[in-house]
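Hi, here's the filled form for the chain we discussed.

Project: internal
Contact: R.S.
Residues: 180
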Amino acid sequence: MKRIVLILTTLIAFIGVNSCSQEDVSKAIADAIKNSFFQKDESLNFSYGSPVLSELNVTTRIIKVTDIGFVGNLNIKHSRVGDLQITLIKPDGTRLAIARNNGGDGSINSLCIVDSDDYESIATAVVVRESECYKPIDSFSSIIGENPNGIWKLEIKDTVNNGKNGRFTGWGLSVFGKTE
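And the returned structure, exactly as it came back:
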């Protein structure tokens, strides 16, 4: 919700400062969406000892992040979510833990992560449910104020040798910020 308010606030300010036609407003909305959402679809299998590393190239006019988060889900299928360690790696190499063997014995097909105090931390979730979103272990607040451009990585490790394998099919990242 915070992201939607941010986009609307930005557009209202844009419209208020400029005498805009409907075409100008439509272009501003399209630019805001184009320059804030990045998605990677791929199909990778993973198992104990064979982690997945997915790269997402973020190229945007945004030079200073004001908000960041995942849009939709991390598309991960695994029969035991508690076996997984999931890490977001910033372009500068800084690692942010999303999950570290959290969520119990349940299976998942997707995982919704939102960095907001409105959601339960995945660290305290006894059972992770696909119908709910969770706060990551490490806050994304360290990204605020940084330039988002570059290669972002998502690393998924199965840390338990129990013969249960997984499949990763994609992820998305939303970036909101100032262009100049």
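Let me know if anything looks off before we file it.
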